[in-house]
Amino acid sequence: MTHAQRILQVNTADRAGGAEAIARQLHDAFLAKGREAWLAVGQRTTDDPRVLAIPRGPWRRLCDTLANATSASGSRSRYYRALTAIGDPLRWVDYLRGRESFHYPASRRV
Question: The pTM is what?
């Protein structure tokens, strides 16, 4: 007896740069092969029903909303950087030190 393969990918976003494009291509390929595939992301930008947003805390959501509102035509303004730093200070410390941040506390919920 064979069981259907179920796949969950976890990524920062469902659409943005190169890493997101590759994750999306893999996700689409799994679906094309008839697999049950899901993509859990920190920032959901599409309405794909197979993409799940990883929940964020209320403080982080508020800062992200304000930051995106101050970001003119998709550019990252100084207000955006300041608000995202307030929303998640540990990630900002990593950024200032030139390190990649692996501080994603909401991923524990996945």
Answer: 0.63
